[in-house]
Amino acid sequence: MVTEEDKIFAKNFNIDDLSDVPAGLPPHLKLKQNRVVSKKDASVDTADAIYSGSYVSSGVDNSVKLENFYEDFKVDVISCTETDMEFDMIGIDAAFANAFRRILIAEVPSMAIEKVLIAYNTSLIVDEVLAHRIGLIPIAADPRLFEYLTENDQPNEKNTIVFKLHVKCPKGQPRLQVLTNELQWLPNGSEFLKETGGSTSNSNSNSKPKTYTSFSCSQDSLPEFADNPITPTYLDILIAKLSPGQEIELEAHAVKGIGKTHAKWSPVGTAWYRMLPEVVLLGEVEDEKAERLVKVCPQNVFDIEDMGNGRKRATVAQPRNCTLCKECIRDHDLVDLVDLRSVKNHFIFKIESTGSLPPDVIFTEAVKILEDKCERVIADLS
Fold it and tell me: Where in the numbering of this chain does the DNA-directed RNA polymerase RpoA/D/Rpb3-type domain appear (predicted)?
């Protein structure tokens, strides 16, 4: 007969409380949850288990919790130069990593040439191609100091940067290379006059001629540009080649925009990520096999350790360098000794700036944009 004590015991019984039952996931499920394993033919366990009850049979709650994110998430900056930045994002899902990559490419604003006014062009490059080439030249100007130019706005010192290009190859001289160092910044705005389309009345004869911009002051009088003139990021980019007698005269107007509108506004040459590689030796790789393993790896991931008495052993020296090329597991004698894995929640990011903004600034601005997106979602749901 079932007693009251038996009922209470059955109600409170939890198999995980027994001393001989291991806590958490068993090793094979733990590996499946946190690693992608690269086999000789294909990678396995590539999908993320995002369902909260994925491992409920093992007594593990797989739901996303904010406090766990606070504890696990971190960013480690590995290197940062004027043009490149490498950092690790740890404790996030691939969806968040990809969202951040897309923001870096398409939503961080920069300054780029949008309008090219060509007064004279006798070069071999047609006007449309010349304008396209000039539009892709990165401009060393902080977009945070400028406003967006809308359809209803007049180009002014707060939303437009004007450059002038006037180059002529004299007759009897060799061919002339036109480089970006020929682009001259016009801090007072456009110098090209607008066509009035008719006779000018006497009342307007003494008025200031209208140009394609309406600057109220010179940009070099502003404190942010007084000691920092605006130039193309690189002064040695080839724009065109002129033969003797050929000439180019134009104005280029740069405005603020984002890469989602056109790639010329993308502040990065590329922004990409990969999961952190993990190289595990499943057994001792010694002597001839060790030398073969070191030799077959093109990224110098492995090294030789001298064990004395003429014995050698392979070790994993630089696992971060692994590109998962699988050369080491194509050898039939080594395939069962090496395991290539990728950590699912650890991403190595690389930002390569076009030079319009430093990579650390691009990173900071991308974080602000992602934060703003999250705040808008919370506001819409509340």
Answer: 84-380
pLDDT per 10-residue tile (average), the chain, 382 residues: 70 58 67 84 79 69 77 92 94 91 96 95 95 95 93 92 96 94 94 70 61 90 87 95 95 96 94 94 88 92 87 91 91 89 93 93 95 93 87
The pTM assigned to this predicted structure is 0.82
Longest CA pairwise span in the chain (Å): 116
- State the Cα–Cα distance between residues 200 and 167, nearest whole angstrom: 32
Amino acid 44 reads: V
Element (H, E) at 10: helix 4-12
Helix (H, G, I), strand (E, B) or coil at 193: strand
Amino acid identity of residue 301, one-letter, is V
Distance set, CA 190 to CA 94, 161, 210, 227 (Å): 47, 9, 9, 21
* DSSP β-bridge partners for residue 232: 139
Cβ pair 272, 350 in contact under 8 A? yes
Tokens 């020929």 locate to 182
In whole angstroms, what is the distance from residue 265 CA to residue 253 CA? 14
Q: How many CA atoms lie within 13 A of 49 on its CB side?
A: 18
CA atoms of 147 and 257, how far apart (whole Å): 9
292-314 in b/e form (b: 16+ CB < 10 A) is: bbbeebebebbebeeeeeeebbb
